[in-house]
What we know:
Elements: E1 2-4, E2 14-19, E3 30-36, E4 42-48, H1 52-65, E5 70-73, H2 79-89, E6 96-100, E7 107-111, H3 119-132, H4 141-149, E8 151-152, E9 158-159, H5 165-176, H6 195-207
Parallel strand pairs: 2-5
Antiparallel strand pairs: 1-4, 2-3, 3-4, 6-7, 8-9
Helix pairs in contact: 1-2, 3-5, 4-5
Amino acid sequence: MFTVWREPVGGHPYCIGVDTAEGLAHGDYSCAQVLDVRTGEQVAVWHGHIPPDTLANEVYMLALWYNDALTCVESNNHGLTTIVQLRHLGHPNLFRKRSLNQVTSKVSQEFGWKTTRTTKPLLIDDLGMALRSGELLLRDRYTLAELRTYTRNERGSMSGSPHDDRVMALALANQMRQYAFMPEFAPKVDDYWTVDWFARMVMRDADVSNPMQIGAKTVRGTV
């Protein structure tokens, strides 16, 4: 299911958080949450059962439509498949982390966000602070329902009942608001009427001629 509350506004930066599942008709859901970076408004949500590689096509069109939105995919498990396909498609603004190898002194980069015992609490705690401070404006009642059932047990593990895909995707999108204005992720702005500007407009029109195609490839309609 693809739901839009606010279509993209020219010049606005957006970010997308993606939680990827296997795509089986009766398995876990995949989810992509879109936030307006400046206002924190939840402007769109994609949610459903879909193979990880096909999910990449949906996310790619969604990112192009929302002004080359900075996109972060959870890189655990099936998320790697989605990331590989997004890179193959030429996604213009995928989140990546660079690190320096202390032995070889070479810089490597890792695409996506790897959720670990260390990074998951960071995601969820930052999301909690953003919600409590009123930084985020949520429109999706299903996201709100998942947030109400999301808990942390006495051992420190966190999960939703029965699903937490919307929460994780929202947490990733919220995290990207901190990175969106860094030089390497800031929206690319071409001078109007230049060759580069025309090339980008032609590519965008070809890839997203009908935004409502987004969400048409789910295994079955879902909420």
